[in-house]
From TrEMBL:
One of its GO terms (cellular component) is membrane. Pfam families: PTR2. It is a multi-pass membrane protein. The chain crosses the membrane at residues 27-50, 71-88, 113-139, 151-176, 196-215. Belongs to the major facilitator superfamily. Phosphate:H(+) symporter (TC 2.A.1.9) family. Its main location: membrane. It comes from Forsythia ovata. Keywords: Membrane, Transmembrane, Transmembrane helix. This is Protein NRT1/PTR FAMILY 5.12.
Length: 229
């Protein structure tokens, strides 16, 4: 949801934070996105070697948990990441006000970038559960002659998500903008309210989770998957 907005804003919240890892080295704001990839690389072996065997001993399924359960777990982790992101952003805004830099968009807020690490790790975990689970679902649960069609539906999710993201951000930007230029997506991130947007995303994801739980109860797997959530 944030991708289109992130590309257009010059001063992102993580750019205003203290990104130093030593007295002479500062990491770039954009490189923090690598934490998602690193968390995926580090956590996939843990998922395959630890989580799946434990889940298999409990559920009796050779996959550990079903595809729909995997997707549902990813959605829960996504909600949790948005909640943590909202709390961290609220902390950053309060810190900016306390130290008197709220009106200085280029000033560094005395708050270390390590506060952002948990939400990035949870985003990586969301990829491991939800995105891989979706890919498996769209590939395995369609007839053999329609495998490519199933994968095309899977990839279309990202395109539709980009359109919806741009639309949502545009609408919220217009509805929340004020005469002084401040709003949820103000160019001065210290006067913006990205925390409200994170809470909104958490709520939308919660609604999506409820819808997923409702429809998945009546879903029947083609293969031997166990009971759907």
């Amino acid at each position: 949801m944030l991708l289109s907005w992130l590309k257009s804003q010059p001063y992102l919240p993580n750019k205003t934070m203290d990104r130093s890892i030593s007295s002479s080295i500062d990491i770039s704001a954009a490189s923090l996105q690598c934490l998602i990839g690193f968390s995926v690389v580090l956590l996939v072996p843990i998922y395959d070697c630890i989580f799946v065997p434990i889940a298999r001993s409990i559920t009796g399924s050779h996959l550990g948990i079903t595809k729909l359960q995997r997707i549902g777990t990813g959605m829960v982790l996504c909600i949790l990441s948005m909640v943590i992101a909202a709390l961290v952003e609220r902390k950053r805004l309060e810190t900016a006000r306390v130290y008197g830099v709220a009106d200085s968009p280029k000033a560094k807020v005395p708050m270390r970038f390590w506060w952002l690490v948990p939400q990035y790790i949870l985003c990586g975990m969301t990829n491991i559960f939800a995105m891989i689970g979706l890919q498996e679902l769209f590939y395995d649960e369609v007839p053999c002659k329609l495998k490519s069609v199933g994968l095309s539906f899977f990839f279309s999710i990202f395109g539709i998500g980009e359109f919806l993201s741009s639309f949502l951000i545009s609408i919220i930007g217009k509805l929340t903008s004020r005469a002084d230029g401040d709003g949820w997506f103000s160019s001065n991130s210290n006067r913006a309210h990205l925390d409200y947007f994170y809470w909104l995303l958490a709520g939308l994801n919660a609604l999506g989770l409820l819808g997923s739980l409702y429809f998945s109860k009546s879903y029947n797997y083609i293969g031997d998957q166990g009971i759907a959530i």
